[in-house]
Design a protein that fits this description.
199 residues; mainly alpha; 0% strand
Length: 199
């Protein structure tokens, strides 16, 4: 993730407002009183929580800021520097340039493969969007997994939930999301106890 000092706060806030306006999030992201780092993490979590079909319909502002924030994770690696600096042979330099260009092409191909995690601007067809959504739904989302874990372990703490997510190989949820889930499950369990549906 990009360093907070490199992020344009105005663009970040505009992207969050645009994301909130889509109505796709369970809870709107609160901007006031938050640091740039918190806003960055919240935006990333909010976008990643959406399925691919929803991501493909996001406003360009959100997509551009999201891709900019994750650019370091999928950044193109720098080309290798020459080990021997003192060589002046023109033939050697030509060979080194050819090798360097080949390495750059390979790095670009690797970069393209890695950048597929970044959001695309629009799905080509409705069928492609449905198919992408079906492929993504193969397993539970991190939020669903956390909710189930909390139901099975009502006394779980945030650290317990994060460990379970990590162990299951799922993305780590933000503290705000986990707090929300803990609170909601607590309400549900309290209601079920009051109505004597559980002990």
């Amino acid at each position: 993730m990009k360093d907070a000092t490199e992020v344009n706060e105005k663009d970040l806030k505009a992207a969050i407002v645009a994301l909130n306006a889509t109505g796709m999030l369970e809870e709107k992201i609160v901007v006031k009183g938050k640091t740039v780092e918190d806003l960055m993490e919240t935006l990333l979590d909010g976008v990643e929580e959406l399925d691919e079909a929803q991501q493909s319909t996001l406003p360009a502002t959100v997509i551009n800021v999201y891709n900019d924030l994750i650019a370091d994770e999928v950044a193109e690696p720098s080309s290798a520097e020459s080990e021997e600096e003192g060589e002046d042979d023109p033939d050697t330099q030509k060979v080194e340039r050819a090798v360097s260009e080949k390495e750059k092409k390979e790095e670009k191909a690797d970069y393209k493969e890695k950048s597929t995690g970044a959001i695309t601007t629009k799905a080509k067809t409705k069928e492609a969007a449905v198919q992408a959504k079906a492929e993504k739904k193969k397993g539970p989302s991190a939020t669903d997994f956390a909710m189930r874990f909390i139901c099975d372990n009502p006394r779980a703490t945030e650290a317990d939930i994060q460990k379970a997510l990590d162990k299951a190989g799922m993305r780590i949820l933000s503290t705000a999301t986990i707090d929300y889930l803990l609170k909601e499950v607590g309400y549900i369990i309290g209601y079920l106890k009051e109505s004597k549906r559980i002990k």
